[in-house]
Write a structure and sequence with these properties.
single chain; mainly beta
């Protein structure tokens, strides 16, 4: 995980301007033996005495994201305060799954993949927001606010099938 943030705040007298930008990037990788977890993997085991192939999946999940917010707020100490701002985020992710045969008798993972999938996704949002605060008494405030956002999301699932020729594994 890589994470960076820049935060700046400017006191403009009766107003404060705040800007925050964050960038993060991550990668997660996991290997899992699928035998016993689903019917497709179990079917590849073979009948007793005909070979014992297993299935390992290599999960590789990566992504990066940028988030930015700018807001302008009043610095009043009296009856009325306000805040207004803009928010933006852009996130890209990709999940890659590669299926590899396991020779369970030799306890080895074969290097020839026989299938998998790629699942790229993206998310973007742009928003504007505002808030009004009224100090009715020193111990009682009333606030009203709103936010409008526009979002766009995309997702694909791209499957791949490879038919490797596997040597017969004997039990």
């Amino acid at each position: 995980l890589t994470f960076y943030n820049v935060l700046a705040s400017w006191d403009l007298g009766s107003l404060t301007l705040t800007s925050s930008t964050t960038y993060d990037r991550w990668q997660f990788r996991q290997f899992q033996d699928l035998i016993g977890l689903n019917a497709t993997a179990d079917a590849l085991k073979g009948a007793p005495g005909s070979g014992l192939w297993g299935v390992m999946v290599d999960f590789d999940y990566t992504g990066d994201e940028v988030v930015h917010e700018t807001r302008l707020a009043s610095n009043n100490t009296g009856f009325f305060n306000w805040q207004a701002g803009l928010y933006y985020t852009n996130k890209e992710t990709d999940q890659n799954q590669t299926y590899l045969p396991i020779d369970r008798t030799a306890h080895s993972v074969q290097s020839t993949e026989f299938g998998g999938s790629d699942q790229p996704a993206s998310y973007r949002e742009l928003a504007g927001f505002g808030n009004l605060k009224f100090e009715i008494t020193p111990t009682f405030d009333v606030s009203v606010g709103g936010r409008y956002s526009s979002q766009h999301q995309a997702f694909e699932q791209i499957g791949r099938v490879v038919a490797p020729s596997l040597p017969r594994a004997e039990a």
